[in-house]
């Protein structure tokens, strides 16, 4: 008996391109105001690929867009949202250290600001 597969079952995940990532960043920046905007200007970096240590292969890397102390904001292009996590070695992080919201860039900058103000 032949199995029925939808077109979606044959789609292969592709990581977000730098150009697409920049579109998301520019869109979020256009809505930032006040403390959020000022913090973003201090912590943003040119996006760079960091190793996601849970799996340990080169394909398991994600774009990091901001660094503040031991925290990073990165783009999870599998789930298609930004995240706030901690790291111990520059260039490597573990998704299980997430502290922010799995949402837009502005929300994660807000979560980072709240974390700074709390400490």
Name the beta content range. Answer: 25-35%
Specify the biggest β-sheet: 5 strands, mixed
Structural class by SSE content: alpha+beta
Number of helices: 3
How much is the average pLDDT? Answer: 84
Catalogue the unreliable spans.
1-10
Query: Taking Cα atoms only, what radius of gyration do you get, to the nearest Å?
Result: 16 Å
What is the overall shape? globular
How many β-strand runs?
5
Helix content: 25-40%
SSE order: HHEEEEEH
End-to-end gap: 61 Å
Strand order of the largest sheet: 4-3-2-1-5
Describe the protein in words:
The protein is α+β, with helices and mostly antiparallel strands and 119 residues long. It has 3 helices and 5 strands; from the N terminus they run H-H-E-E-E-E-E-H. The chain has helices at residues 18-29, 34-43, 105-118, and strands at 44-52, 61-68, 71-76, 81-86, 92-93. The longest helix is centred in the last third of the chain and has 14 residues, at 105-118. The N and C termini lie far apart (61 Å). Residues 1-10 have low confidence and may be disordered.
Quick overview of this protein structure:
The chain has 119 residues and is an alpha+beta fold. The chain is built from three helices and five strands; from the N terminus they run ααβββββα.
Topology of this protein?
Elements: H1 18-29, H2 34-43, E1 44-52, E2 61-68, E3 71-76, E4 81-86, E5 92-93, H3 105-118
Parallel strand pairs: 1-5
Antiparallel strand pairs: 1-2, 2-3, 3-4
Helix pairs in contact: 2-3
């Amino acid at each position: 008996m032949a199995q029925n597969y939808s077109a979606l079952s044959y789609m292969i995940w592709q990581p977000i391109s730098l150009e697409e990532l920049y579109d998301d960043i520019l869109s979020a920046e256009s809505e930032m105001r006040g403390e959020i905007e000022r913090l973003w200007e201090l912590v943003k970096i040119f996006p760079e690929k960091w190793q996601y240590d849970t799996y340990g292969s080169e394909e398991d890397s994600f774009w990091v867009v901001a660094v503040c102390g031991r925290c990073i904001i990165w783009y999870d292009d599998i789930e298609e949202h930004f995240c706030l996590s901690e790291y111990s070695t520059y260039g490597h992080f573990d998704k299980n250290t997430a502290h922010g919201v799995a949402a837009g860039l502005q929300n994660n900058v807000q979560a980072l600001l709240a974390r700074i103000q709390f400490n």
